[in-house]
């Protein structure tokens, strides 16, 4: 549950932005304003090249005031009780379960910082049965959860040995349903295991460059519509080890407020100056760019060696989609570079699943560095970096993980190959395109039903990541437990990963979810929403014409885990 | 949601109170401590208002009736 986003800012505001220069409305704002924000069309500093195929609406509705007040009150009360329990532990009236130094070392420099773990010790530990739940099956549209009990309020767990079968999975990043164990689909993967084994036992640079790695790189380049691509074994490491190879001291990184930890880690490791702009806010980005270009490096005022804008395709905590046409226009105007992290959007958005560049109808060569992961839509592991041939050739010899990390395992490579061929239609079937369309349909259906019911949902209408706001810590925990009792597995996220008043449940839809599963989940959400009073939305939606009426008997049937 | 009896409804209201104040995450003995502290504060508020409010309302009414009572007398005096 931890993620740190400390913005690093330096530099004085030398030039005051004249509001008249930027005449069009801002693209999308984040949700910290008083009024309801619905933003439709994106207007930037100039018309983008390429037509817009889809332009979903984004909304970040704010809950009524009493919700924020009660959230703070709740946190305050639990903090008070935290102090009380810490006092009892210090005095010795209560057994201390956390790590402590030995008595002989009490006079040494302290090894464990007590206060830093205050939140973990006094709030997270009380309710941590809602996270890290062990599962014992494939993370497909339904899965089996192992049951566990805790005799001492979640300090220790004991597995009872029973499993909760056929829980509907609303948390796995399985956007196109490629996390499957159908024997027919996985035949080539099994052949590769027999041919190559599992471990590569070397790096790509030494002895680990297999033929299928090169095949995969060519396929990825063809899929994205770029000149060349490089694949790496781990998605997080793709960001954190490649950004230091691209930028260094004397360069500037402009990173979005809500970027993922891997991007922040890569930026910090590189040694470049980092400036943060408001989430998806083009005015803020333009202001920071102008300042940077005008004032130069912090003390010497020399021009920056490079300016790189780092954004993500879909932000997984908000469900918002980046305002790509405007960013491309800005980057061309101020001659900066663009690094686009499509971890959640590749395969999941766009008419044929090519990501946000296709969603907005832009040319992929407008983006300088395209990065993505294979973990989410392709059911495998690993990441890629794509772009011009010179860039990728440079990275092959200068990136830390390309040079030192172990190469991607052969069956994983084959899984990505078969998934990508399926999406592109190269295997002769239309399964891939069917899945992409089904995902888009599921997204539209689920989002519209949730909004009709009266929940507050964040994010763009096209994004398959749906955060449902819960706000109060007590409700977050009760929601997760209630949904598991009804055999729906959800992921809830709270304080360090989200702002303190905006705890949420995050649904990740999949092409493998059938309409019956979604209807069951919606039915349960409706009931739990009424039971826990979670319907904070104050907007009125006209309900869509009722297509069919489901009998309640359908919703109680068990969903068997079968392969598609 | 349909409640079969009042007891179930009251139970649901107590559940809402637990959720909104986030007392739901605490252990039962901590919940009892908080409930007793809150109950005693509320009881003191009720008792104090019971002792104080009628007296003050009575005094306030007296003052107002005093003003309204004097007014017609003074105009009568002026006329005479």
Automatic annotation (TrEMBL), chain A:
Transmembrane segments: 63-84
Protein location: Endoplasmic reticulum membrane
UniProt membrane topology term: Single-pass membrane protein
Catalytic class of the enzyme: transferase
InterPro entries, A to Z: Aminotrans_II_pyridoxalP_BS (IPR001917), Aminotransferase_I/II_large (IPR004839), AON_synthase_class-II (IPR050087), PyrdxlP-dep_Trfase (IPR015424), PyrdxlP-dep_Trfase_major (IPR015421), PyrdxlP-dep_Trfase_small (IPR015422)
Predominant localisation class: endoplasmic reticulum
Alphabetical keyword list: Acyltransferase, Endoplasmic reticulum, Lipid metabolism, Membrane, Pyridoxal phosphate, Sphingolipid metabolism, Transferase, Transmembrane, Transmembrane helix
GO biological process per UniProt: ceramide biosynthetic process; sphingosine biosynthetic process
Essential cofactor(s): pyridoxal 5'-phosphate
GO molecular function ontology, one term from the record: serine C-palmitoyltransferase activity
EC number: 2.3.1.50
Domain Aminotransferase class I/classII large: 166-522
Residue ranges of the region described as Disordered: 543-564
Family, similarity comment: Belongs to the class-II pyridoxal-phosphate-dependent aminotransferase family.
Record protein name field: serine C-palmitoyltransferase
TrEMBL record, chain B:
Top-level lineage group: Eukaryota
Membrane topology: Multi-pass membrane protein
Sequence intervals crossing the membrane: 9-26, 32-53
Biological or metabolic pathway of the protein: Lipid metabolism; sphingolipid metabolism; Sphingolipid metabolism
MF terms in GO: serine C-palmitoyltransferase activity
One GO process term, biological-process aspect: ceramide biosynthetic process
Location in the cell: Endoplasmic reticulum membrane
Primary location recorded for the protein, binned into one broad class: endoplasmic reticulum
One Gene Ontology CC term in the entry: serine palmitoyltransferase complex
Keywords associated with the record: Endoplasmic reticulum, Lipid metabolism, Membrane, Sphingolipid metabolism, Transmembrane, Transmembrane helix
Subunit structure: Component of the serine palmitoyltransferase (SPT) complex, which is composed of SPTLC1, SPTLC2 or SPTLC3 and SPTSSA or SPTSSB. The heterodimer consisting of SPTLC1 and SPTLC2/SPTLC3 forms the catalytic core of the enzyme, while SPTSSA or SPTSSB subunits determine substrate specificity. SPT also interacts with ORMDL proteins, especially ORMDL3, which negatively regulate SPT activity in the presence of ceramides.
Family recorded in the similarity comment: Belongs to the SPTSS family. SPTSSB subfamily.
Biological function: Component of the serine palmitoyltransferase multisubunit enzyme (SPT) that catalyzes the initial and rate-limiting step in sphingolipid biosynthesis by condensing L-serine and activated acyl-CoA (most commonly palmitoyl-CoA) to form long-chain bases. The SPT complex is composed of SPTLC1, SPTLC2 or SPTLC3 and SPTSSA or SPTSSB. Within this complex, the heterodimer consisting of SPTLC1 and SPTLC2/SPTLC3 forms the catalytic core. Within the SPT complex, SPTSSB stimulates the catalytic activity and plays a role in substrate specificity.
Protein name from the UniProt record: Serine palmitoyltransferase small subunit B
